[in-house]
Each structure stands twice: as structure tokens, then as C-alpha cells.
Amino acid sequence: MNQVFFNFLQQSLSEEFWQSPPNVICFYGKTLPGFFLQKWRARVSEIIKTKFIHLACEKKRVPVELQQQSFLTEKRFYWLGEVKQQAVLQSVAGKDSGRCMVLFTEEKIASLWNKLEHVFVLEIIDSIDMYNGEAFLKLFYPKLLPAVHLFILKMVEHFHSISLDHFVSLVRYVEVAGLRNKTELTYCCDEVLEQNSSLKFISDTLLSMKPRQFFTLWDSVAKLYSVPFWVSFFNRLFWDVAGYVELMERGDRELAQRIRFRFPKTFYTGGWKRFPLKVLEKVFKELYAIDYGFKSGIRSEHGIECLFAKIFVNNVGGG
Questions:
Q1: Cα R_g (the chain), whole angstroms
Q2: 167 vs 192: CA distance, rounded Å
Q3: DSSP state, residue 61
Q4: Which of the listed residues 53, 65, 110, 155 has the most CB atoms within 10 Å of its CB?
Q5: Residue 224 carries which DSSP code?
Q6: Residue 116 pLDDT greater than 70, yes or no
Q7: Which residues contact 154 (CB under 8 A, 6 or more apart)?
Q8: Could you give the CA distance from residue 115 to residue 121 in angstroms, rounded to a whole number?
């Protein structure tokens, strides 16, 4: 992470920056780090006390909300996702003190914007190592427990450097899983970051709705890890699913395209519709109940298998 990029991150997480922000903040890079930008927007929202309004710029169409001059006294903040059409970019670049727009685009398009007034162009350096990982944690995760902070830095050191999205996913995963079993957690983090896990087959068959293949695999790996581990593992999986489904339901297909590699083809070509947000909310509640029940001795270790059965028969939350 170069100093210019990090300096911007520091400035953008201060109230003063947002008192008079640029009309357009244009990020660019080789690939769109969707999870990182989601985390950045969440931290900014905490500071400006308002959420970003999501608007999808599909093909050459400019969202209606941006076609008219804003006369609001209170500034509005928009997230346009990934925009590749120069015509769309030009139409939103004009000065409008009533709104601030944030987007991601390609380097060749961003280079044309460098000298435009009211537009701030910034290259995203998509790499975290031990040195900038320390600074990044302090900036974006100030309340992280010291032991978790240290564990994450050790994982980054193990891989020398990781992408911004992997870093955000790693922090989120460790926060959910906890440090009860560091050996188990280290192994799982290796699997998550290397993206070549045997656990991926478990995820893929579940999201592809292939019960026979799933339960065959499940029988061979279920006893390798504890129930709390599996609860954390599926929490993370369905958290990612919820993020993708939310993008698709909102019509932000450009950004959804960027993260679909995390899922099997059958899922992103239509299978995601079987996991609406209302159903996923019930899945999270059941996972919590399974974890609580197991730790308190109320429920057996087979509770999670009952959840799988409900998912396959489309009866989550149905008793």
C-alpha cells in the first residue's frame, strides 16, 4: 500500500474531509476490491452519520437520481459501483454541491479525469503486507482485541502479502471464529486465503443444491473439526452469499460479477435466487441457536445437519 493511498484513507476517515468533499471520488485499479470498498464505506458512514445510497449505472444509462441538479441543503453520498462507460462518467462529473459520488473504474478512463475540477482520482494499491497491515488494522479495526490483531498479522506474514479483499475477509473470519483453537483456525485461514480448499467442495455442493454429493462429503469431513468451527465456517459462507444476493437484488450486477468467483457456477447463474435475504436471516439465527445450544449442552452436534436438510428442502425457519 503506497503512502498516497494510505494518506487518503486516513483523511477520508476524518470528519473534516467530508465537510467539503470532492464531487466525485474515482477509485481505479486492476481489479475492484469489493469487500474492501464495502468496509471503507461502512467506516465512512459511521463518521458522516449517514449511509451511502447505492445506484447501479448499467450500460450507458445514468441513474435518474443523478440526471437532475440537487437543491438539497444536506449533502447526499452515492456509491455507483464499477463504471466503465466514459459517457456515464462525463455526465456525473459536473459540479453539484448537493452530492458526492464514489465509483470505481479502469485506469485508462481514470487517467482522463486527473485534471477535471471537483474530481478526485486515486489508484487502489491492492496489497497488504506486515508493515501496512499493522497501520490498516489500527485505521479500520481500532477496537480489535490485541490477540486477534496479532494473529492476523502473523497470518499476513505467513503469506508475505495478501489482497485487500482477502485481508478484510480474514479479519471478519477470525472475529467470528474466535481464537479458541488456534491450530484449527490457522489451518482454516490457510484454506480460505489459498482458495484451494477441500472445504470449498462442501461449500460448492451446498450452494449448488446437490444433497447427495454434499452429505457424502460431509460424512468424510464432519468429525475433523468441532461444531463451533463449522458454525463459524458456514457463518462466513452465508455472509458472503448474503453480500452477493444483496448486490443482485439491488441490480448492482457489475460488482456482483467481480465477486462471483467465490461461488460455483450453478449458484451465480441463477441458483442464488434460492437464497433470498429473508431466508439467509433465518439461517444466521439457526446457526446462532446451534452454537449456543451445543455450548450449553441443550442441543446435540447433529443440529447443524438438520439445518442442511432444511436448506435442501427449502424449509429454513419452518420448524
A1: 21
A2: 11
A3: P
A4: 155
A5: G
A6: yes
A7: none
A8: 9
The pLDDT, as a whole number, for residue 315 is: 60
Q: What's the grid cell of residue 248?
A: 443482485
**Domain 3-126: which CATH class?**
alpha beta
d(CA 41, CA 209): 33
All cell numbers assigned to 149: 490483531
* Cell matching residue 309: 436438510
Owner of C-alpha cell 438438520? 306
For residue range 255-309, what is the model confidence (pLDDT) as tens digits? 788 788 778 889 999 999 999 999 999 999 999 888 888 877 766 666 788 889 9
- Beta-strand ranges (E) seen in the chain are 24-28, 53-54, 76-82, 99-105, 119-123, 128-129, 161-162
- Report helix, strand or coil for 70: coil
Q: What are the cell numbers at 155?
A: 497470518
- Rounded CA-CA distance 160/214 in Å is 34
Residue ranges per structural domain of the chain: 3-126, 127-191, 198-319
Q: What's residue 196's pLDDT?
A: 42
Q: Write down the pLDDT at residue 114.
A: 75
The length of the chain is 319
